[in-house]
Amino acid sequence: MVAADPTAEVTDLLQRLIRNECVNDGTPESGHESRSADLLEDYLHAPGVTLRRFAALPGRESLVVRLEGSDPKAPSLLLMGHTDVVPVNPDGWTHDPFAATLEDGVVWGRGAVDMLNLTASMAVALRRLLASGFRPRGTLVYAAVADEEAAGVYGVEWLVAHEPDAIKTDYVITEMGGARLPFGRGGPRLPIMVAEKGGAGLLLRVKGSPAHASMPYGTDNAVVKAAEIVHRLAIFRPPARIHEVWRLFVEGAGLSWPARRALTSARVLERVLPTLPVGIARFIHGCTHTTIAPTVLHGGVKINVIADTAEIQVDIRKLPGESRDDVHRMLAHAIGDLWRECEIVREIDRAATVSPTNTPLYEVIAQVSAKLVPDARLVPYIFPAATDARFLRPEGVVGYGFGLMSERIPFDKLFSMFHGNDEHVDQESLRLSTELWVQIARGFLA
Description:
This protein is α+β, with helices and mostly antiparallel strands. The protein has 15 helices and 17 strands.
């Protein structure tokens, strides 16, 4: 017998996923996602479904569960969550980040919102659909994938390259959306991610000449040059660009006319940003600018040796329509005369991806959301970071990022918890998301 209220079940599964400690530090031997693949395979094993596990490397396993539809021509849907989480420093937490403490209706732990809450609620929804005898016209796929937190190399990117038929569907829903905007008039406004910025990470190397550090006069110190490059990148301000997805967000957010005008004029926006709360300003800036952030600097070999090499890692997120050449022009402009001394050692270049909003799935998400959150309206937006949907959109898949959060976790709070301290999710959000997936599956695939 399946309980009518899924809250206890989804809470328990989330807690077990958190306690698996699938910490991905970016190295091939980290992650250990097989722990959660074991858990979810056991949880979802049922007649009528096909469960397969895929390992790009030992221990880096993704689980894919398929419920085949009765009509091969009907649209198919992938519910996709990841099982890995980012590293954590427990000193900044009020609860043990891997104890999955339940207190006052809230589950605390690393991954609670990024994104084990959705991975768990999707699994619970699938199990409930199976228990009810649900047999869809269109195929339903659930994927709990590895390595999302370190570029997806051993997760979805590997699956698309080596096992594309396992996860290829017409539509995919993954993170990140469904938390209520803290502004706007009228009923609740629920952001739905329909686009993602492109990634263009760089490893730059600059060279100097070694010398004894006791006599630094006139030396060619690579660390000093690298520090100047970092400074120039940090103060560089690419101009705002107002693209179509941002206009859709502003128009749908329930803002006053002066606010809409300010947020859709590149010139006015630059003056408005410093006046806004920092969390909101960061989001708006990320949605309207290509961002360039130097994040890691290494140089030198010994305290008394002038450095002959230094390396800088630069995180770059580009807007729709911008190319690799556009990014290189920005870097050359920012770095100036030192650009000619930079060697690009490694470069990741992915274009921004965008999905349409005039689709049957978008309509179903809107209808179900308004039922579960009365008077709610969807607001499409571009995600300043990245999700695994970026690997699927170029394959022709329409991808959205969604979920449902309660009033306890508005959009700005949700963003602040990603990769931060005291990550948590409330049980009402878990219940809402579970109900969301069940009703979307029934409304879209039945």
